[in-house]
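Recall from the previous lesson that a structure prediction takes nothing but the amino acid sequence as input. Here we apply that procedure to Large ribosomal subunit protein bL9 from Streptomyces sioyaensis. The sequence below is the only information supplied.
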Amino acid sequence: MKIILTHEVSGLGTAGDVVDVKDGYARNYLVPRGFAIRWTKGGEKDVEQIRRGRKIREIATIEQANEVKGQLEGVNVKLAVRAGDAGRLFGSVTPADVASAIKAAGGPDVDKRRVELGSPIKTLGAHQISVRLHAEVVAKLGVEVVAA
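The prediction returns the following tokens.
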């Protein structure tokens, strides 16, 4: 099935790309979650609009990405969340939570879709996360999750 990606999907492509995937993957995962739309002849107009939006948001050069990486790695991020007595969280920390905590700590504005947690954060303490700034630049960042 031909689809148009609306978000970056690791291993598949970036927003605005037209890709061919298995029908079930598109129907059951990509389209319901809003990562893609079905390809149509009229959808080609959408592709241009998605690409223009991506160019505005994305970090264009590796130099810019390295500059933002330096800013990110110099920020101490603390995230206050509700937790039980045993140190388990009520829910989990999301990429949006991390992105807003980075901004609140004085760091650069980071798109939540660029934050990669690896595994869900469900306990208090120090955790390592990655922020994919560019295809070749990934910033490693320490996040301290504390009880609110």
